[in-house]
Structure to design on (206 residues):
């Protein structure tokens, strides 16, 4: 997550770090205690990210505009993009044809909420997936992420194993400094799954 703003305007694309981020939903599967939106703030830097209406694939592509200036397109807002899997994939397919690199930042719960393995659908459309592991065990994960689904932690790990078969770059992340989170153990889990690991800093979008 990122620096906060008091802006209340809704934003679909927003530029950070040379990337174009796409904010396609405000809905989440988790209710993370550290999330700005559960602490009364909906902003990332100067951008207001609360969406009152969810944009269509056409809306998103039109809003994104000329993407030639960006390093990559990242599906990431203050909501879980795979909640709108069909829209995400439709937009990715259209942007793919422009030759841009596409990343999805996700909670890794898409297979759980869609009740099937959706990861083959990413093949050929998504270049990279960043999965929020957030903790090294279920107890600490549940404390920070407050999932509605009791199997969320194990589902996130299972998703990570599946998606690496279909997407060239998979990174699992955890936020350093959250109480009880053992970053070294998180790294060990990513190593065991066979994907990369990145330590995150709270309130910084990546
Ligand atoms: S998954 Fe991300 S956007 Fe959703 S509640 Fe957690 S931190 Fe917030």
């Amino acid at each position: 997550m990122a620096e906060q703003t008091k802006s209340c305007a809704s934003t679909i694309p927003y530029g950070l770090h040379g990337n174009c981020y796409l904010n396609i939903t405000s809905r989440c599967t988790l209710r993370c205690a550290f999330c700005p939106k559960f602490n009364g703030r909906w902003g990332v830097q100067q951008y207001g990210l609360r969406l009152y209406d969810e944009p269509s694939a056409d809306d998103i592509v039109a809003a994104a505009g000329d993407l030639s200036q960006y390093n990559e397109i990242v599906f990431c807002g203050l909501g879980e993009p795979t909640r709108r899997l069909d829209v995400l994939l439709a937009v990715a397919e259209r942007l793919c044809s422009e030759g841009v690199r596409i990343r999805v930042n996700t909670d890794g719960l898409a297979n759980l909420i869609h009740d099937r393995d959706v990861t083959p659908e990413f093949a050929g459309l998504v270049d990279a997936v960043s999965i929020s592991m957030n903790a090294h065990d279920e107890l600490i994960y549940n404390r920070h992420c407050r999932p509605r689904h009791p199997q969320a932690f194990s589902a996130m790990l299972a998703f990570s194993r599946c998606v690496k078969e279909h997407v060239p770059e998979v990174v699992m992340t955890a936020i350093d400094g959250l109480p009880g989170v053992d970053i070294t153990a998180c790294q060990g889990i990513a190593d065991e799954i066979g994907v990369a690991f990145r330590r995150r800093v709270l309130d910084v979008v990546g």
